[in-house]
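S1.2 Input.
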Amino acid sequence: MKKFSLLLLLFGSFLFAEVRDLDIASFEKLRSNGISVIDIRTPKEWKTTGLIEGSHPIMFFDAKGKYDLQAFLEKLRGLGIDKQKPFILVCRSASRTRMLGNYLSDEMGYRYVYQLAGGILNWKRHNKPLIPFMP
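S1.3 Output.
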């Protein structure tokens, strides 16, 4: 029975290859275990609200909604993130991370993409600390 449950769990992860939401507690647990946090907002947003400590600011969509996928992927690789290594995406409200995360999972084969549910707004609602963005 245990083998069957394990197989179901593993098989299920292949069927549902999409970005996974993390509540605040789950986010903090994964982050404390060394999972990289990638903040995909714009520099203006980083300056306005600050960053979650330890996160890596790597803009994906610019202020006009344009993006450079190859440049973004290159920066991920520079952090040691590949298709088998888990990471967490953060944006303002989780709408951009949902789009990007689903694309990375569904189209590019990244297996362990997470996002902070509700984004930085949710983080702030829970009175969690932010640090200033230093370019």
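S1.4 Remarks. Residues 1-15 have pLDDT under 50 and may be disordered.
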